Amino acid sequence: MTKGVKRNYESLPVSEDDAAFVRGFVIHEDSGIIAFNKPSGLPVQTRNIEDRTLDRLMAAFARSNGKRPRLVHRLDAPTSGVIVAAKTQPAAAALSQSFADRLVDKTYLALVTGSPLQEGETEFSMPLTRHIARPGLELMRAARPGDQGSQSAVTRWRVLASNGQTHLLSVEPQTGRMHQIRVHLSIEGRPILGDPYYGGASTLKGLPVPRLMLHALQLEIPHPTAGGRFVINAPPPADFLAVLSAAGLEMPADLASGTR
């Protein structure tokens, strides 16, 4: 994004309805950070500066000098859950460095289908590369020998609940590649329900799956102003819990409340 585009973007007004909309997702705020439980379907950023995105809605939290909180990481539009913005430039720099140095621990919930999984923790390592699936649609796939732009990618998961065919997983990406969790689980033969790009089923027991069943449950980060490590939890939303219930599975009580 060029500086000119950024200035135009930040000058766009936010309606009272949009301001109330985004404020409803705040789950934590202090002098350094503001955290949201982003709903599925809300993009973080797009190429069109007039789109309703979380980044644009940061204007609802602008200070009197016009400075807005700055998002320091991303979630896919269909993924719900915790996402953090920095309230000052020093906080943004510190958080961005923490993400770059892999000092941030991320935990997701994923509802997948496939054969039963082994007990305990699975670590899946598979380099990934971007590819153009069709004009305007960039996805990820397993890297092949000689691929340029191949990136290492490691994901860990464990089973929280299962009915033998549908499984609720706790997933911890060890690297931060685009669509990493989605493509790794698909390669392993356990695509996420509601994922149209990586083989996820669109129905469950004859009923439509309304969204990608991937939720960012928790971030553990070095706090950029208070020091020490700080945990932010985002309880799973009602639409996620409804599909889980339709699968005949229950959320562990501590996770349902957003605590561990």
Properties at a glance:
ten-stranded mixed β-sheet, alpha+beta, 21% helix, 7 helices, single chain, two-stranded antiparallel ribbon, 260 residues, disordered N terminus, Pseudouridine synthase
Layout: helices, strands, pairs:
Blueprint: H1 3-11, H2 16-23, E1 26-29, E2 33-38, H3 54-57, E3 70-71, E4 80-86, H4 89-100, E5 105-113, E6 122-125, E7 128-134, E8 137-142, E9 154-162, E10 166-173, H5 180-187, E11 203-204, E12 207-208, E13 214-222, E14 229-233, H6 238-246, H7 253-256
Parallel strand pairs: 4-13
Antiparallel strand pairs: 1-2, 2-4, 3-4, 5-10, 5-13, 6-9, 7-8, 9-10, 11-12, 13-14
Protein model, in words:
The longest helix has 12 residues, at 89-100. This protein has helices spanning 3-11, 16-23, 54-57, 89-100, 180-187, 238-246, 253-256; strands spanning 26-29, 33-38, 70-71, 80-86, 105-113, 122-125, 128-134, 137-142, 154-162, 166-173, 203-204, 207-208, 214-222, 229-233. It has a single domain (3-250), classed as 2-Layer Sandwich (Pseudouridine synthase). Mean pLDDT is 92; it is low at 1-7. The chain has seven helices and 14 strands. With 260 residues, it is of the alpha+beta class.
Number of strands: 14
Distance between the termini: 38 Å
**CATH homologous superfamily label:** Pseudouridine synthase
Largest sheet: 10 strands, mixed
Helical content band: 10-25%
The 3D shape can be described as globular
Helices, by number, come to: 7
Corresponding CATH architecture: 2-Layer Sandwich
Could you tell me the CATH topology label: Pseudouridine synthase
The amount of beta strand, in percent, is 25-35%
Q: Give, in order, the helices and strands.
A: HHEEHEEHEEEEEEHEEEEHH
State the secondary-structure class. Answer: alpha+beta
* Average pLDDT rating: 92
Rg, Å, rounded: 19 Å
Give unreliable regions as ranges.
1-7
Number of domains: 1
For this structure, the quaternary state is single chain
